[in-house]
């Protein structure tokens, strides 16, 4: 009985984690460049159930039983989102041949991070930064400085100001983007902070005055949310049934009549 109680409780916990993930996805449905997470749910290892026969040294196999489920990992989907025109000169959308594998390079607390959110700005010092103030890097790993926001960027990422090319965005390529770790502010990092290679011209194009929208599918997210809630509710009812059974076993079946 206690094994069944644990199995139902693990199902509730897995459903709760999935609900939290979906809630975060939907909350970021309007965040430029946001990549929706999806979860992988796995069952705990099977248990071998055996019956021991009286007077025999060997056991007879009855069968196997899963003792619950857990959310093994949450991974972002790197499918490219739709683009929207903003006409802001500091907004940029990345389009790449292999969807979702090209990234802008930014500097956060001295470390190189990566993002698909091309909604940039120019700070008072003339540095191109993300909305959260992290400097955007060029292909040599240096911060990019301009004199105003009236600069032009071509499809290959070259920045031109007053007719002079001053820098090129440090666009990198991730051959296995699923290995990137997701952080706050729309940033990603590599394992051990290893640098990603600079992308070739044929791998991507940049559109100035556009941003990539979130790739959250609201209809699918709402359907998955309802499914997760109903799964949680079903496991909750199982826990309540076990609780009533335990209460009856302790207070009624185990009672000794005088």
Automatic annotation (TrEMBL):
Coiled coil regions in record: none
Protein name: Flagellar hook-basal body complex protein FlhO
SUPFAM superfamilies (UniProt xref): Flagellar hook protein flgE (SSF117143)
Main localization category: other
Domain Flagellar basal-body/hook protein C-terminal: from-to ranges: 208-251
Localization in the cell: Bacterial flagellum basal body
Every Flagellar basal body rod protein N-terminal domain range: 7-35
Domain Flagellar hook protein FlgE/F/G-like D1: 99-159
Alphabetic keyword roster: Bacterial flagellum, Cell projection, Cilium, Flagellum
Keyword Iron assigned: no
Similarity annotation: Belongs to the flagella basal body rod proteins family.
Superkingdom, taxonomy of origin: Bacteria
Gene that encodes the chain: flhO
Origin species: Siminovitchia fordii
Pfam families for the chain: Flg_bb_rod, Flg_bbr_C, LlgE_F_G_D1
Stored InterPro entries: Flag_bb_rod_N, Flagellar_FlgE/F/G, Flg_bb/hook_C_dom, FlgE/F/G-like, LlgE_F_G-like_D1
The keyword Calcium is annotated on this UniProt entry: no
